[in-house]
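Note on ligand handling. Small-molecule inputs were canonicalized before submission; formal charges were left as drawn, and no protonation-state enumeration was performed. Where a ligand contained multiple stereocentres, the stereochemistry in the source SMILES was retained. For nicotinamide-adenine-dinucleotide, this procedure yielded the string shown in the input block below.
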Amino acid sequence: MKYQNDLIVIGAGSGGLVVASGAAALGARVTLIEKEKMGGDCLNSGCVPSKSFLKGAHLAKEMKDADQFGIHSTIESIEIGELMHRVHGVIDQIAPHDSIERYEGLGVSVVIGEAKIKSKHEVVVGSKTLTAKNIVVSTGSKPYIPKIKGLDQVSYLTNLNIFEMNHTPKHLIVLGAGPIGLELGQGFRHLGVEVTMIDQSKSLFTKDDNEVGPLMEKVLLKDGVQLLLNSKIIEIIKENEAIKVIVEKDNNRIEIIGDELLVALGRIPNTQDLGLEEIGVKLNARGYIQTNKKLQTHVKNIYACGDVVGPYQFTHMAGYQAGLVIRNAIFHLGSKVNYYNVPWTTYTKPEVAHVGYTEQTAKELNLFKKTIHVPLESNDRAKAENDVIGFLKLIIGKKGTLIGATLVGEKAGEMIPIASLAIQQKLKPNVFMNIIFSYPTESEIFKTASLQLLRDSFKPWKANLLKKILFKK
Ligand SMILES: Cc1cc2nc3c(=O)[nH]c(=O)nc-3n(C[C@H](O)[C@H](O)[C@H](O)COP(=O)(O)OP(=O)(O)OC[C@H]3O[C@@H](n4cnc5c(N)ncnc54)[C@H](O)[C@@H]3O)c2cc1C
Ligand SMILES: NC(=O)c1ccc[n+]([C@@H]2O[C@H](COP(=O)([O-])OP(=O)(O)OC[C@H]3O[C@@H](n4cnc5c(N)ncnc54)[C@H](O)[C@@H]3O)[C@@H](O)[C@H]2O)c1
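Structure output:
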């Protein structure tokens, strides 16, 4: 059978765009179908707006803390509408990169409309049926809205509408203290908004090193965020203009009254109404597409990548998986996903980042040998900038190589790739000793870790022997 396309890609977000442009660059006939905005979540309602928003929020925090530098200023007003206007300006600057015009220029045929898979080689958009040898599903995810009593009776915010806000709330109640709740909740607090975060989990940053949660809890409390952890959300009640959230914590009933509510309780994959199960693509119990390690679904010519597959919902993961889909769907290389060296950064202030194993996962897998822990307050640049809250923890595996790293600090997201490279190259942690780091930089903390390792391994008998050989009178 002759197909109109080599590849049909459904969804023009972080995953789909990379598959479409990569495959077209190789000469494949590609149709990319998008039902809403080109660029998907990351550009329009995820990474780009959230990080642009956080720049303003963190700036406000720095202005409030400027006294310590001898700079005395007062913030006259914070205009959320203006801040959000800038956020949309940043989206507009980046949007041409993901635009229909650019993709058509790259040789991709772009169709705007809702796609539905009709058979293993046919996709329907409106009245059109398109055919392809291979299909890639990269339809992303959306906010999970659980059934909480009264939630459907109030108007609430999610990542889809929060960046449209044009007034400053008095009290923002945040349901969920995962990355979205933490980044946006802390951001609004920095803008002077009263913020209460509610989560069922006993601690914060549960996917990071065990030391991170308690440290960041202190940071948030110092910022003035009210934290209700280990809490069950019972009911939400609209009271005139206010929203009341009733929570149960330690057998006590607590009522929180705010004027805005952000729901950040996780994500669900966009797999409904796509016709997937009808043609034999299997979903797991939570609705995510099941694939093998080559990212092939149960229907072998249908691949999937990005949030719709998981297990990590990051733009860099969608991009990584997209690269693999190209290798497998076009070149049939049989490449398999490897999730060993995935970086995670949460853009709180300070940032929290890790790559490879945490101490606890390394121990669980019986790979753990030791850790090196260096507090940021030992670093001269951090002292100069008063960014001393944080640490570097290197995880060393049984073979003596680096297998994981956690960094907390103002520049953690920018510095974590140093550890990624060492882990990927299976290097020993003393490798940083042979690198000349610029002084003063926070990344020198890696060299400090190497020196600490050397010092730790330098037993007293070795020191005595060396003294005798080198300095004998
Ligand atoms: C507030 C927030 C902040 C984030 N911050 C970060 C961050 O700092 N760093 C990071 O790495 N990740 C971040 N993420 C996660 C990141 O945005 C996602 O992991 C990434 O966008 C996933 O890409 P994707 O291609 O899988 O899905 P998406 O980008 O969601 O793209 C899927 C596309 O498919 C389209 N679609 C769906 N169904 C159909 C259909 N039937 N027909 C046609 N089109 C369809 C959708 O309209 C959408 O455009 C953040 C997410 C949120 C919500
Ligand atoms: N910096 C980044 O890379 C970044 C930033 C934002 C979002 N993201 C991506 O988006 C994904 C979604 O983020 P998220 O924060 O919405 O989801 P999440 O699943 O990471 O966190 C949701 C939080 O809500 C809590 N929760 C869930 N149901 C609850 C209930 N009924 N009552 C009380 N608490 C409840 C959970 O304990 C959890 O802490 C992330 O996993 C991440 O992959 C990434």
